[in-house]
Amino acid sequence: MTIEKIGILKRILYIGLATGILIEIILIYKDIFIWMKTAWFNYPPDRFGIFIPLLFLFIFLYRLVRDPVKKLNGNRVGLLVILSGVLIFIAGIFVDIHIIQAASLIATCYGIVWYLMGTDWARKMLFPFCFLFLMLPTSSFLMESIFSVPLRNMIAKISCKILNSTGSPCETINCVMYLYDTELPVQYFRESISSLMMHMILTCIAAEFLFIKNWSKFLYLLLLWAPYVMISHSIIYLAMGWCYASGGINQSEIIWAFRKWLPALIHILMLIFTWAMIRKYSGRKENGSR
Q1: If DSSP states are collapsed to H, E and C, what string results for 171-205?
Q2: Can you say whether residue 118 is alpha, beta or left, with left for phi > 0 and alpha for psi between -120 and 50 degrees?
Q3: Which of these three, 137, 172, 192, is where a domain ends?
Q4: Based on the domain organization, do 153 and 282 belong to the same domain?
Q5: The domain boundary residue, chosen from 108, 137, 166
Q6: What is the pLDDT of residues 140-179, one digit of tens each?
Q7: pTM exceeds 0.85 for this model
């Protein structure tokens, strides 16, 4: 048998093994998939979760196309990761907590990649697999409790201070602004968790196409999320406040009708501007080094 035929047989064997493992995972985790699907479609703060696996698939396939695997150097360390995923799954069954079983799915899949594709690919896919944890439905509750209320309070206070400095009487109680006889509750573009997901998804796509080799810039963009949320929402509430102060109630009502989408648009524009500045600075640095 020639070397070429042996290589073809190995590929067929790996494809068959991967297909069998995929079918087995679907059968074992069927109830978990149903639980996640129900949460994604029935609970608004968790709807973003459906996009996370799609983003993961995009990153995985994009990296396969850009850096094709010439030789599969599997590593047995992956078996230990698979075993840990199985143990986590069993623990989740005993305590009857779905999120633990869902986390075991991510660990098991990562172990399979490590075992079949080797350590190099395990390193390349570490971040995308960590990103998959954001698809778990109950993660939104934790994110909302950490980010939502503090940021809404800060946005309300910043907007009120600027309005007071321009002569418009404004005060805040919790996350609500009171301007003249008008009550303006500070809300988010589909809640803070959705805003964070939008920011992370756009940043991930930019990282893949613009600067995959330099993750410090990716982390820099992630750190900009909270300031960008405050700036984009403060602009909207300041505009509404000034419209009320100047008697432009109709204009203020138009802004209020689009209050969920305008901050997102401003946020995206700021993020695109930041990408452009990073690219411009990187280009100057490369030209200077030459």
Answers
A1: EEECCEEEECCEEEECCCCCHHHHHHHHHHHHHHH
A2: left
A3: 137
A4: yes
A5: 137
A6: 556 666 666 777 778 788 888 887 887 777 788 777 777 7
A7: no
